[in-house]
Amino acid sequence: MAGIPAGVVAAGGLVGGYGVARWTKRRPLGGVALAAAGAVAARGWREKAGPGTAAALSGLYVAAFAGSHPLAKKVGAWPSVFAVAGAVAVASWAVADRRP
């Protein structure tokens, strides 16, 4: 993955997917960005930490996307997206990205 930590890719996918959907007003296009980043991140997680960790972090990625919706009703859309993106990035660093 050219040295880019998978957590950065995943966080970028959450933020970028929302941004694309919002600015183009085409939710499916945001979904494509979200899915593409998720696939790249999953490959990085699998390479660094194995398939089990990749599956767990991929599940967290999907849960973060889903969880950002109800959270947005409480704190706003962008704060919610940044919060879940940060959570995924930290989890990724803790279990995969910090490995040599």
Automatic annotation (TrEMBL):
Transmembrane segments: 28-45, 77-96
Superkingdom of this protein's organism: Bacteria
Keywords linked to the UniProt accession: Membrane, Transmembrane, Transmembrane helix
Keyword Membrane: yes
The protein's name in its UniProt record: Integral membrane protein
The organism of origin for this protein: Streptomyces pactum
Taxonomic placement: Bacteria, Bacillati, Actinomycetota, Actinomycetes, Kitasatosporales
